[in-house]
Design a protein that fits this description.
- The protein has about 475 residues and is α+β, with helices and mostly antiparallel strands.
- The chain has 2 domains: about 375 residues, Outer membrane efflux proteins (OEP); about 80 residues, Single Sheet (Outer membrane efflux proteins (OEP)), CATH 2.20.200.
- It is built from 11 helices and 4 strands, in the order H-H-H-H-H-E-E-H-H-H-H-E-E-H-H.
- It has a 4-stranded antiparallel β-sheet with strand order 1-2-3-4, with no helix packed on it.
- Helix 5 runs antiparallel to helix 6, helix 7 runs parallel beside helix 11 and helix 10 runs antiparallel to helix 11.
- The relative contact order is 0.16.
């Protein structure tokens, strides 16, 4: 008894030595955001993305409805969820290896045996029918996990399952951001289409006015052709943005996984205030809570557990097979006291020579661990860059938008004055043409900047780990 306890105690101590311990190393990035990005962080009162649900970040009700449709119907997200279920089932299979596989069996055998009988001094062959009944309850090939091989494999399967859960969360965040960006792109193209249509209508009116003036001998053919060029240029933009808006709708329908009702589609870009402001926080707070970083960390933990299983393969593998039951030649006497049976067959497999396969397997496990470490560090570094880039662009795009709005206001006044001077006969139509082209280009640039700024806020929400 004491020897058994001593052996089990030594095995437990040895198991602790065989299992490498995972400890999170320091971040392979600076402890704070770069200076140019840190200056763009929000006020401390703003919530962090990880604490903000997407329903709180996107306040537009139509956009919320479109995102909900995507979460319910997107095929990529559905496959990610199914993969989680699959890996969860695999983990349960591996976990079951820790426990004995107990089964019950019943068998009934009838067979004939030859037997020699003596009749009148002569040996006469005679067949005998034998019946055999048995009932057994037992465990088959249960490994006594003294050195932690099965526990290490179970831990590795658990970490793989947790990694797939984080992968599904990362897929959901990416889907929410992709739907929002496609929605914003459609809104921008439709606003550009509306702007092109308004420009076309205004230029068509100017063309008809100049045509009447030319017929009356007031305007020249040059003025008429210049006005016509503006009409045709606006017509080209109408066709271009109409086609682009249709492509945007197709892309949105693909992401959502079902056709989006026309009533949910945007007609123009909404206000920048439709997206909630966020705080950048510190890298250690943000990066270590991103689903893709957590996924890489779980994969790294699984690699550590795999090393433990490879090390345990160098030690004896002890399996137990045993059972108890009843056996009788008569079914009515099957459960009597004298028909009890039992069997117990322990087996110890001691590795002696395998041409270096176990050592090579341990080497592979260690290299896989090093790969996982490198992948984990790279994921953190990539995330650090994504957040830094988004933070840097946030205020820069705001400054560009403010400057572009001032440019539009100035060019609008220039166009109004040029048109008034032309109608008064002071300037030629060329000055009106130049002013109108500049204004139209500035208005398009303002729409694109507004879209870029809102898309940057969506990207910032994604890279900061939001989307729950």
């Amino acid at each position: 008894m004491y020897r058994t306890l001593l052996v089990l105690g030594m095995a437990a101590c040895l198991t602790g030595c065989l299992q490498p311990r995972y400890s999170r190393s320091s971040l392979p990035v600076p402890p704070a955001w770069p200076q140019n990005a840190a200056a763009q962080t929000s006020a401390p009162v703003a919530p962090q993305a990880t604490e903000t649900k997407w329903q709180e970040f996107f306040t537009d009700k139509d956009l919320q409805s479109v995102i909900e449709l995507a979460l319910a119907n997107n095929r990529d997200l559905r496959m990610a969820a199914l993969n989680v279920e699959r890996v969860q089932a695999l983990y349960r299979i591996q976990r079951a290896e820790q426990y004995p596989n107990i089964s019950a069996s019943f068998s009934a055998d009838d067979y004939r045996l030859p037997k020699t009988a003596t009749v009148a001094g002569f040996s006469v062959p005679k067949a005998v029918t034998v019946e055999q009944y048995s009932v057994n309850l037992g465990a088959a090939s249960w490994e006594l996990d003294l050195f932690g091989r099965v526990r290490s494999l179970k831990r590795q399967a658990l970490e793989q399952y947790l990694a797939t859960e984080q992968a599904r969360s990362a897929a959901q965040i990416s889907l929410v951001a992709a739907v929002a960006n496609t929605y914003l792109t459609l809104a921008a193209d439709r606003e550009n289409l509306r702007l092109a249509q308004a420009t076309f209508d205004a230029q068509q009116s100017s063309y008809e006015l100049i045509l009447r003036s030319r017929d009356a001998g007031i305007a020249s053919d040059l003025d008429l052709r210049q006005a016509q060029s503006q009409v045709e240029a606006a017509r080209v933009d109408i066709a271009r943005y109409t086609g682009q808006a249709t492509l945007d709708e197709n892309a949105l329908n693909l992401l959502v996984g079902t056709p989006v009702a026309p009533g949910l589609l945007p007609n123009e870009l909404g206000s920048d205030r439709a997206l909630k402001d966020l705080s950048a926080g510190l890298p250690s707070e943000v990066l270590l809570r991103r689903p893709d970083i957590l996924m890489a960390e779980h994969q790294l933990k699984g690699a550590y557990a795999n090393i433990g299983a490879a090390r345990a393969a160098f030690f004896p593998q002890i399996t137990l097979t045993g059972g108890a039951g009843y056996m009788s030649s008569d079914l009515t006497d099957l459960f009597t006291g004298g028909s009890k049976t039992w069997n117990f067959a322990p087996q110890v497999v001691m590795p002696i020579f395998d041409a270096g396969s176990r050592r090579a397997n341990l080497k592979v496990a260690k290299v896989d661990r090093d790969f996982a470490i490198a992948g984990y560090d790279k994921a953190i570094q990539s995330a650090f860059r994504e957040v830094s880039d988004s933070l840097t662009l946030r205020t820069r795009l705001m400054e560009q938008q403010d400057a572009q709005q001032a440019l539009v206001n100035s060019l609008d006044e220039t166009y109004r004055l040029s048109d008034a001077r032309y109608k008064a006969g002071i300037d030629s139509y060329l000055s009106v043409l130049v002013a109108q082209r500049s204004l139209y280009g500035a208005q398009q640039g303002l729409v694109n900047l507004r879209m870029a700024r809102q898309a940057n806020l969506v990207t910032l929400y994604k890279v900061l780990g939001g989307g729950a």
